[in-house]
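Please, structure for the following, as tokens.
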Amino acid sequence: MITTTALPQAKEIVARIVELQPWLRDQQAIAEQQRRIPQETIEQLSEAGVFSLSKPKRYGGADFTTREMLDIYRALGSGCGATAWVVWATAGGNMWSNAFADEVVAPVYESPWVGNRTFAVGGTSRHMSGSATKVDGGWIVKGAWPFATGSVHASHGYLAVFYDDTDDSKVGMVLIPKEQLVARNDWDAMGLAATGSQTVATDGELFVPDERFGFPAELAARTAELVSQGLGPRRGGLPRSIVSSTGVALGMADQAMEVFLASIGRRSVPYSPYTRQVDAPVAHHIVGRAAMQIRAAGRLADAAVADFDRLDAENRDPNADEILQFHADAAYVWNECATAIETLLRASGASAISKRMPLQLIARNCRAGSLHAANNVDTWMENLGRSMVGVDAGPSSMSVLERRS
């Protein structure tokens, strides 16, 4: 059943997030200690309409441009980077999980729920996905899926499974109620700890009916059909999601600069002539350099976003060269933001390492995000360079279902 409810407006959501930023900043350390986003924060975000991003448009979810998505993630990242990461990751997973038949998807998204509806875990190896065996009426699934961002607050998981022990190209996706999975509560990381990206697993063997099992090609065709009908996600798939994620990094950089500038007038520079850091010329260079790094990263993100929205207006998906450039752009933005924040942290002196101080947490969160495989700057600079000089990139791909030997 297609809802006629008016879709949320991006500007309204951004304004509500800005109002929540003081709360989000106050909760950052608590969230890290709990290794999850606190339930009260989830409830406030839900009330603000933030989780409309992880709900299909045909069920009353958001239908935002890439520009609008980045603006929302940047506002969230300026409040709490880990919270922004969870919202981004679950919105991205929704692009695929809503491609099952309506009789499967409708109950997921039409039922009352506070928070994100689904979480998604693809896989680059058998260590990141389970296995499935065909039986009458469905599949027997078993396995464990680490890095399940958003699984703490979701109702369903969208998970990759291998269904042929002899052919690693044979991958399927299953949509499983979270209540049928075991959460291992094993996420304890130096950065983005509050994302709750724990391992989820089956408790032995689990029967999944045929209607909740999908082959990637079929799900992609279904998504394309929904897009053509104006009922699916906007064009661009994973690269669009990756580009919009740069808003999370830029938001964390915005917060870091604000935190640094708020204390520079009170901070001294020990073992130097300066009783106030604000009077030290080196501090002026540091602030200027970090500000320009953040500004340049933002301009690059803006350009990538504009390209995506242009492609969307032209009803065209990005080609292989464009996808490669989008990935490289996003990785570069993440690295520049992380580096700029670390510059500000280093200039803040030893007092900044206290866990009472927010800058050290922001720095760890942003660097952790930059180390995600999709954002690793060294990988993507090499991929871009290989393409530019005409060297074959080899068998690797840019798919979240990539299988590496």
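The radius of gyration is 22 Å. Strands lie at 118-121, 130-135, 138-142, 144-145, 156-162, 171-177, 182-183, 200-201, 206-209, 213-214.
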